[in-house]
Amino acid sequence: xxxxxxxxxxxxxxxxxxxxxxxxxxxxxxxxxxxxxxxxxxxxxxxxxxxxxxxxxxxxxxxxxxxxxxxxxxxxxxxxxxxxxxxxxxxxxxxxxxxxxxxxxxxxxxxxxxxxxxxxxxxxxxxxxxxxxxxxxxxxxxxxxxxxxxxxxxxxxxxxxxxxxxxxxxxxxxxxxxxxxxxxxxxxxxxxxxxxxxxxxxxxxxxxxxxxxxxxxxxxxxxxxxxxxxxxxxxxxxxxxxxxxxxxxxxxxxxxxxxxxxxxxxxxxxxxxxxxxxxxxxxxxxxxxxxxxxxxxxxxxxxxxxxxxxxxxxxxxxxxxxxxxxxxxxxxxxxxxxxxxx
Length: 342
What we know:
Elements: E1 2-10, H1 14-26, E2 33-40, H2 46-53, E3 58-62, H3 67-76, E4 81-87, E5 91-93, H4 99-107, E6 111-120, E7 135-138, E8 143-145, E9 148-149, E10 152-153, E11 164-166, E12 173-177, H5 178-183, H6 196-206, E13 210-221, H7 232-249, H8 255-275, H9 279-293, H10 296-309, E14 318-319, H11 323-328
């Protein structure tokens, strides 16, 4: 069994593999580390390129596209390692990116998952959208990061160079104990893509484990390689999955109030799309709510399971205010502006 499996999920991403795999192989060639590609039923030249140009990579071929969650779940079942790192195919890693996080996990069994510092591949002095310097949510389930609030990106001036507890670690580069990954049920297949790592981390948090940001490890993420931020299907997935996330994980006594507030806030977002003539995104928000409310029964048993396993109900890494109100109305554009010290 390997100490670490670096696992990349691929779907028709042969160009990304050619561009970013060299850095992964160069800086992962250390003892007890293997690199895998789980192929989600690609129809392009991905498999041929892997066989010809990267023969050291271990390939797990799936017959169809099971999405981010399903693809990883099915692929990871076939890998034996103490730790996994789920790595996006559009990430450039750096020298020494593995050692600090593995040392951290080895030193404290209560740490379930970690992420490195995530910076932009395009603007390498800025933090990147998906993860930045560690992820959090507010009390209504809206996700944000140190170094990135909505569409405002901070430059990396060393302001987040300390080890920190976070609420969620990005799926773009997620180090996690394999035993705990399977113990809590892995990524939720019904999310398909987007926010499934937040759901996974919430389950780990609620069972008393820590999620940590380790800035001594640093990677660069291109981002938007599968779906752009303005894609209506991504809008649908983000709004719907955020409702799934809340329903599955919020403790008893808080759910109705939070869902009602989200219905109002999401309605405002939909109207904004409409006024901006973004009709497909407006419709995506509406469909997300319809899909969620018609799917509640399917998720009820998962909510019950989470409540039964819940050891911690209050989390210092959940922001007990509205990040939407702070950002858009109180004009708090940077993490340091928030009255929040997790």
